[in-house]
Write a structure and sequence with these properties.
Structural class: alpha/beta
Number of strands: 14
Distance between the termini: 40 Å
Number of domains: 2
Number of helices: 5
Helix content: 10-25%
Radius of gyration: 20 Å
Strand content: 25-35%
CATH topology of the largest domain: Rossmann fold
Order of helices and strands: EEEEHEEEEEEHHEHEHEE
Strand order of the largest sheet: 11-10-12-13-14
Shape: globular
Length: 267
């Protein structure tokens, strides 16, 4: 059967020095160090989004278009959990884990094992972290309900996106707007990114996949008033149209002094 042409990772073995920096960046576990080189262990484990691109110090990784096996989420689940899913390739030996352990995350449920502990998918059972509000001497609860939050790290099929409203925020917004958690984040899944520092075309492709596959109930795009932030809104609107989405798409614009300048519907 003919294979479809799609985006997939290509690793230049001549440039690769086997440092392994790319391994934890792949949430699907599609890259492993084998015989001193980073290798794609199976085509159907690679979603083609390229989260590994920016971490390679040698520039040995790129995205290419070629005939490849379709991305298979069930194979990824089996590969990560060790329960069997077909990966169309022999499984390499597991890489020894680092002796360093991450700080525990209270009241969390890990979704996938394997890969980098810092980017493992987690859902929080309930807000558990409180910080002191020095103005009122009260405590303020975090309303964050998942990890990770970076758009570059969250797969479109992440379970914490399903049926949820997504807050897509430029990463300056939580710092500029003091009531971010209570006013905008509560009850939503969070995706953050910087349209100035990251690849906007990659954002658009990732968002389109999220809008098609996540089953989300709505999206609020939260940006700063500065011109570069408009790129995040544009990427979200383009992805929304390309995905043929029908859920509500909203916009919130925050001023650099922390005020809400505008709230409006984009769809």
């Amino acid at each position: 059967m003919a294979r479809a042409v799609r985006d997939i990772v290509h690793i230049d073995e001549e440039l690769c020095d086997g440092c392994g920096d790319c391994v934890p960046s792949c949430a699907e576990g599609a890259i492993r160090i084998i015989d001193g080189k980073a290798r794609l262990v199976a085509e159907n484990l690679c979603d083609g989004f390229g989260n590994c691109l920016g971490v390679c110090p040698r520039g040995a990784i790129r995205i290419e278009k070629r005939a490849a096996d379709d991305y298979d989420e069930s194979a990824v689940d089996g590969h990560l959990t060790g329960t069997g899913g077909e990966s169309h390739a022999p499984q390499p030996p597991a890489i020894p884990s680092s002796p360093k352990r991450p700080l525990p995350l209270a009241a969390t449920t890990p979704i996938h094992s394997g890969g980098c502990p810092g980017s493992a998918l987690r859902m929080f059972a309930s807000p558990a972290v409180e910080s002191e509000n020095q103005d009122t001497a009260e405590t303020v609860s975090s309303t964050l309900s998942q990890w990770p939050v970076q758009l570059m790290l969250v797969p479109p099929t992440a379970p914490f996106l399903k049926g949820r409203e997504i807050l897509l925020a430029a990463d300056c917004c939580p710092f500029a707007f003091g009531d971010f958690h209570r006013r905008f984040l509560k009850g939503k899944a969070l995706l953050i990114g910087c349209p100035k520092l990251d690849d906007l075309d990659h954002y658009r492709q990732k968002l389109e996949a999220c809008f098609r596959q996540s089953g989300c109930s709505g999206v609020t795009v939260m940006i700063m008033e500065v011109p570069c932030c408009g790129g995040l809104k544009a990427a979200a609107v383009e992805a929304y149209r390309a995905a043929g989405a029908a859920f509500p798409l909203k916009e919130v614009v925050i001023g650099i002094r922390g005020e809400v300048l505008r709230e409006s519907m984009l769809s």
